Every structure is written in C-alpha cells, then in structure tokens.
Amino acid sequence: MLPVNILMVGVGGQGIILSSNILVLAGLKAGFDVKKSEIHGMSQRGGSVFSHVRMGDKIYSPVIPKGAAHVLLSLEELETLRWLEFTNPDSKVIFTRHRINPSMVTEYPQGVEDEVRKHLPNIIPVDAAQIREKTGNPKYLNVALLGLLSNYLEIPDEAWQAVINKLVPKGTFEKNMQAFEIGKLIG
Amino acid sequence: MEKMVLFGNEAIARGAWEAGATVGTGYPGTPSTEILESFVTYPEVSTEWSVNEKVALEVGLGAAMTGARTLVTMKHVGVNVASDPLFTSAYTGIKGGMVIVTADDPELHSSQNEQDNRNYARAAKLPMLEPGDSQEAKDFTKMAFSISEQFDTPVFLRSTTRISHSQTIVNVEDRVTEGLPEVKFVKNLKKFVMIPAFARARHHVVEERLLKIAEYAETLEINRIEEGDTKRGFITSGIVYNYVKEAFPDAAVLKLGMVHPLPEKLIRKFCEQVDEVFIVEELDPFFELQIKAMGIEVKGKACFPITGELSPDLITQGVTGEKPGKPDIAIEVPPRPPALCPGCPHRTVFTLLHDMDMIVTGDIGCYTLGVLPPFSAIDTCVDMGASITVSQGIEMAMGKDFKNDTVAVIGDSTFAHSGITGLLNAAYNKRTSLIIVLDNGTTAMTGMQPNPLSGEMISGESTVALDYVKLGEAVGMSTNDIKMVNAFKKEEVEEAMKEMIAAQRLSLLVIKGPCILDKKHKKKKNQ
C-alpha cells in the first residue's frame, strides 16, 4: 500500500497525543510500516499541536510532505486553516466544530468553515457538542473521531479494538468502543 | 523478535538496556527527557536526574571509569554546561562503554538556540553516531557502546527532535551482559589524572585514536552507499536521510551513520560515481565544509537553508527550484503560541511585575512565557541560571545610578541547576537586588520531573529537599532577607515583593504554588 497520511491538529490539551498513539498502533497491528511525529515541550502549553501519522508498505519521512495529507483530522476550527498547506483538493477533512480562542485574540475570526469548504470540498463536519451528548462524556470525543477516521483506512476492527483496549484507562473500554461505533456512523 | 512502535528516545533507552548498560544520568531537557524516564523503568539499572548536565557527565564518567556501561543524556544546550568534563573525558577515555546523547532541536521547538552539536564531536575529538529512526536509535546506541570500549573513548549519539519525538517500528532484542568489562575501579594515574604531564601524553592518544576511528569508519556498515540514479547523489545523515528518500526515492545516496570522523575514501568513491553531489544536512554545513576541504566539488548550503528543520519539500525545492504552492487563505489565521496555563501559580507574580514596571531578568522554563502578553514581564532570557547573574551585571553597569529596579525570576529546578552559583556570586560581591524563585514543586516545562527542591528522585523515592533558608544563610544572607510566600495569596506576594525591593539588600523570595498540571498528573497517578 502506498503511504496513507493522516495529519491530526488541534490545541495543547485536547488529547491529540492519545488519539494518534491509538492510530499508529492500530496501523502496526494491521501490518503496515508506521511512523508518527509530534512535538513535546513548550508548545504543549495551550499552543498549536499536531501529530503526523503515516502508514503503508514503506515509510521514510515521519513528517507528511506538503499537499500530501489524505485526511486532516482537526479538533479545532482555526487550526484546520493553519495546516491547509499539507492538504490538496482531494484531501478529506474531519472538521470538528469547536472554537478555542488563541491567547492573544479577543474575537474569534468569522467564516472559518466556509473558507475550509472553499479549499476542501470533502469536508466532514462534526458537531463536538452532539457527540458529547451521544457518548455521554466529553472524554470520548477523540475516540469517536477515530471511529469516523476508520472509515477511510484499511485497518480491521479487531486491530482498533485491541489497541483501544490497551491504551484507554481501565474500565472505560466499553464506553470508548461505543464512542468509536458512534463515530463510524457519522461519515 | 517482537516488533514495537517506539519513540526515538524510548529506543535509545532500550538500546542501552539491551547493551547491558547499568548506569544512566542526565538532566531533563526537551527533546532528550524521555530517554532517562524510559531507562529508569528497567529493573537492572541505576539512574539519576543529576543537578545539571556537567554533574551528569562527571557522574557518568566516574561510572564508566569503574567499568559500567553508562548512558548520559541531555539536550543540545546541556552539552554547553557539560562541556568542561566533556573535552577532558576524550583524554581520560573510559573502561565501561560511555554513550553521551545530545538531543538537538533544529527549529527551536522548545529551546533558546539552534546550535548544531555535531560541532562538539569535532571540537572534543569524539566519535559521533546519528540515527535516522527509532530502529537505528536502538541499534546505534548499542553500536556506540561497542565502539566506546573498542577505542577507549566516550561516544556521542546525536538525536534531533524529529528522531526523539517520532515513533517508528523497532525490533526489540534481549539484553546481553556477557563479555562486558569488570565493574571495579582500577587505579591508572596516567590515564585518569589529567595533570599537564599526563594529559600531554594523552593528547597524542586522542589524535591517534581519531585517525584509527576514521579508518574504521571507511568500512563501518552504517556508513553506506545506496546505489541509484547517478545524475544526482546525496550525502546525508539522520532524519534528513528520510526526507531525501521521500523527495528523491531513486537517487544515489551516501548515508553517514557515523557523522564524525568522516570516511574520506568512501566519500571520494561516492562522489566519483555521481554527476552532481548535494550535501543535505540540517543546520551547519558540517559535512559540506569538511568535504569541500577534501577538494571535492559539492552543493550544500547554497541550495538548502542553514536555519530551521529541513523537510522533503525544502529538499525538492533546493534541488529543482520548484516551490510547493501555498493555499490562498482569505482569513488571517492568528498565531497560537503557547501560554502560561490557566491556573498556573506563576500568573500572579508576572501580573505584579508587569504592574510594577520592573526590569525582569528571566530564566529557562514554562515561566519564560511571562514574556508574552498580557504579562510582558520578562526582559532577558539567555540560559539556565542567567536570571540571577544578568541582573547583577545590570547592577554593576549602573554603578551608583542603580535604582534597585531589577528583579531576577527563576524556577525551582533551574535554581538548583545553575542558580545557586549566581546567588553565591551575588552575596560574595555584595549585590543588592531581589531574586524570586518560582517554586512549583516540579520541573514542569519538560514534563514533571522531580528535582533537588522537590524531595523526590527519578525513581519516585523520597529524598532530602534543599532548604532555601539555610542555603541563603550559608551564602551570607541575613535570615530577614529570605522569605517564603504562597503563590495563590496575591496580597502576601505583593507585600513581600515591595518590601524586599525597598530594602535594597540582596533578598531571596520563594513563591510556592504547585504546578497545576502536576496536580492533575499526581491525581491520575494515584487513581
């Protein structure tokens, strides 16, 4: 399989690292070469965060080349625009409707979703509040998004299950799998 | 063999463990921190967070002189702190293998500069290996231990942020301890006591050793030519190798696993095979200048940037001139820089410093974010410990015009690392400014490591915590000039600051409040 590139973006504290850990291990379980790149340290203090995940027969760069993301999974509206240069008009974007004001901005920019649609017609908008309602807990949003993402990847369900079981806190596996299934139905 | 997905840092720790290492020392610093945090999880090893990198390297050297295979870890700027013992460790050599990891940070993701520590290998005359993914991080670490013992020298392993913080697949193996040196200190004055007469002789050993390693590098399997399209050839190493393969999968490549010393014959052979040679390296023209000095015509920094990280796109652009298109975004996307966390105990002091309009000499840690609005309350930040000392320089320069309007602000771990000498210097030289220690009970920036002020060791075991009052008294301060206040009581903090600034005597104000993230972290751990 040629490399499949998934760029996950958001804001420090949104749980991108756990999500991308699940994704990369599921890719390994499915038998792919996998690589993932992210940044720790100062940028985690409420700054922009990202995780590049790539899987396929053979992966060289852990960083996705510009324009080559197959899926941009964004947990925050503005962040979607920030990473646009990694996408192309065929990229799918999982667009979470959720706004976090950057620290130095008092008014959140208007028209973000329309602008994203202009560049990326394959947009899958996700209403964060709705998912929270369905899963009963905001903690499961990220796993629900992985469920949605799974529709676009060649990773068998057993691989997802095994990895989610391994990585989520004890006693939350069933709830997380429910969230995963809810996510799958969005796309 | 079991396959795992490991961060480069975890893979280095795994490699050291597989190689039979029993000692690990270091000081936390992004992107190196997780190496020791991972190493400590292996039951057979003895590990410490040292007070600073100089201490870590010296403790490590002592262990290696005794015969233990020893891993020493630090970030790139940490090597500056450790550079004094580093240079002489090349002279003493070792007994048990010693691997010093320098984790460089091209792009300054979490650092104050972007120095290229390959230059240290050259300056200190030590061999250096540079892995390109986690598998190599593990394999090269093991190889570095062997090379260290074979040539009786510490060996550098250079990682970069993208190696340390990328996860790739690793085939893990068992730990092997057979055939390792006996762990016993054997006196050897001419090797371990570097008085001039002995060191003079050792310098010859260092130079001869380097020539031998350069010869060894010619046939070392990690320096390899990958045959391909000979129109363009690339000489590269580390993470950049992967970017080159991504951008030009069919090109001929010379991948250097050992980046110092260089295999001159192998380089000549490669350059003869290809029409045009590109040297692709992040940061300094380290290979380029040496290869040009061999009289070989190559292209390097004329095509690729000397600052920041490289990427497959920048390599394509440098070779072909093709620029990737930039999307035309109609909305201005405001930057989202990191900021002091909501609920951070340090927010109060920076608000006060802002309102009092002081000259604030700052230091290295999360709290450096006090420079950003709405606080805008840090005026200098240079290196670990420089808050306390830069403030003294301002006082000296101003002389009798000094108005006691400077305040040094430093975190607890940074204070232990390099602040204490500055405090001693201030007392000794009769300086008169306020030093504030922001004590949040942990080394927060790098991910909650314990330190000499938090009463806990890397293993989680409790230990003594430095006593600020006794320390202040010991350097000669009067007890009245040392105060501890609660970070969350703004009035107390404000009163203490104003009083101590007005006193115009050297004063130490410790503002205590636990890191908000550490509280969450500890709660999670206890669940």
Proportion of beta-strand residues of chain B = 15-25%
CATH superfamily of chain A: Pyruvate-ferredoxin oxidoreductase, PFOR, domain III
Question: What is the helix fraction of residues of chain B, given as a range?
Answer: 40-55%
- CATH homology superfamily of the largest domain in chain B: Thiamin diphosphate (ThDP)-binding fold, Pyr/PP domains
How would a crystallographer describe the biggest sheet of chain B?
Answer: 7 strands, mixed
Give the CATH topology of chain A.
Answer: Pyruvate-ferredoxin Oxidoreductase, domain 3
The structure class of chain A reads alpha/beta
The low-confidence parts of chain B are none
Question: Termini of chain A, distance in Å?
Answer: 23 Å
Shape summary of chain A: globular
Q: How many strands in all of chain B?
A: 18
Q: Tell me what the CATH architecture of chain A is.
A: 3-Layer(aba) Sandwich
Q: Taking Cα atoms only, what radius of gyration of chain B do you get, to the nearest Å?
A: 25 Å
Instruction: Determine the mean pLDDT of chain B.
Output: 96
Oligomer: heterodimer
Span between N and C termini of chain B? 34 Å
Give me the strand/helix succession of chain A: EHEEEHEHEHHHH
Strand order of the largest sheet of chain B: 3-2-4-5-7-6-12
Rg of chain A, nearest Å: 16 Å
CATH class of chain A: Alpha Beta
Give the CATH level 1 class of the largest domain in chain B: Alpha Beta
Notes on the protein architecture:
Chain A has a single domain (4-184), classed as Pyruvate-ferredoxin Oxidoreductase, domain 3 (3-Layer(aba) Sandwich). Chain A is globular. Helix content of chain A is 37%, strand content 20%. Chain A has seven helices and six strands; from the N terminus they run E-H-E-E-E-H-E-H-E-H-H-H-H. In chain A, strand 5, helix 3 and strand 6 (123-127) form a beta-alpha-beta unit. Chain A has 187 residues and is an alpha/beta fold. A six-stranded mixed β-sheet of chain A has the order 2-3-1-4-5-6, sandwiched between helices. The model of chain A has no long low-confidence stretch (mean pLDDT 92). Chain B is α/β, with parallel strands linked by helices and 527 residues long. Chain B has three domains: 2-217, Rossmann fold (3-Layer(aba) Sandwich); 223-320, Rossmann fold (3-Layer(aba) Sandwich), CATH 3.40.50.920; 347-526, 3-Layer(aba) Sandwich (Rossmann fold). Chain B contains 19 helices and 18 strands. Chain B has helices spanning 8-18, 34-39, 53-66, 76-92, 118-124, 134-151, 161-164, 189-192, 196-217, 238-247, 264-273, 286-293, 312-320, 347-356, 386-398, 412-428, 468-475, 490-503, 516-526, and strands at 2-7, 23-26, 46-49, 70-75, 98-104, 128-129, 155-160, 166-172, 223-226, 229-236, 251-256, 258-260, 276-280, 359-361, 406-411, 434-439, 482-486, 507-512. In chain B, the strands form four sheets. A seven-stranded mixed β-sheet of chain B has the order 3-2-4-5-7-6-12, with helices on both faces. The chains are: A alpha/beta (187), B alpha/beta (527). At the A-B interface, helix 1, strand 2, helix 2 and helix 3 of A face strand 8 and helix 10 of B. Strand 2 of chain A pairs antiparallel with strand 8 of chain B.
